[in-house]
Amino acid sequence: MSDQDRKRPEQQQEPPGSTEAMVPRPRDRMEGYAGRGLLDGRRALVTGGDSGIGRAVAVAFAKEGADVAVAYLCEDEDAERTRELVEQEGRRCLLLPGDLSDERHAEGVVSRTVEELGGLDVLVSNAATQQPQERLEDITSEQWRRTFATNLDSCFFLTRAALAHLPRGSSIVITSSVTGLRGNKSLIDYASTKGALITLTYSLAQSLMERGIRVNCVAPGPVWTPLIPSTFDPEKVASFGEQAPLGRAADPDDIAPSYVFLASERLSGFYTGEVLAPVGGETMPG
């Protein structure tokens, strides 16, 4: 399908959004991707794995031989579809709904993953929320706290709980954003959390190096996921991603191989504290 055929009409959904209602549907099933056993026998926990980048990552991991636990908020229909796609690859898939900003729930997600899958080797912290506001004054204290709780606190809770179970050779991959690299005037709270996640990546990589646990980050540019029509106005949705030098938003399938690379010790065993930035041709300073 050409980029022109995939042009988006104006559209809007209620948060957190649904894949089924998106026009066009994102490429998020890793069709045509051939695994090479890079994650054979691994047990992975992917948060925000019901749709978007998380779904594509879960399916790619399954194609590479991993069993996958998928943590998500409440999007049961999308999550069930992700489970079908993982199980089609002959791998186990555990669905874990609930709010990861709740410390006790995040710890329970890790415990359930270890109990059901028999261990944990790869943690992908990908769950996030955003709510654009044109002025700083329009960001309520409640919104600020919720954005930080969902995007940053959950990553901390999950990582802390996972450390008791991650063996040497394990990998943690954190999802940041291009907004964490350069900021965004209408996503101030979201961009702030994404910048903090990059610094958290650097710090955790240094802290966990002696334990043999690698920590890396993916900071994508615009990606066509349910987050977009459920948080931006219809006009913004229709032009989403056109500002990228490549002239389009990515699909989740474009981004998921970065996670495979960082999760696989065979491919990225000398990588820790790194940020991969698939941003569609934008050159970052520094």
What does this structure look like?
The protein is an alpha/beta fold. Helix content is 38%, strand content 11%. Strands 3-2-1-4-5-6-7 form a seven-stranded parallel beta sheet, sandwiched between helices. Helix 2 (76-88) links the parallel strand 2 (67-72) and strand 3. Helix 4 packs parallel to helix 6 (188-208). The longest helix has 22 residues, at 141-162. It starts with 42 loop residues before the first strand and ends in a 10-residue tail after the last strand. The relative contact order is 0.17. Residues 1-5 have low confidence and may be disordered.
Main sheet strand line-up? 3-2-1-4-5-6-7
Approximate shape: globular
Order of helices and strands: EHEHEHEHEHHEHHHE
Largest sheet: 7 strands, parallel
Find the count of extended strands (DSSP E, 2+ residues): 7
Count of discrete alpha- or pi-helical segments spanning 4 or more residues: 9
Descriptive terms for the model:
single chain; 286 residues; alpha/beta; seven-stranded parallel β-sheet; 38% helix; globular; disordered N terminus
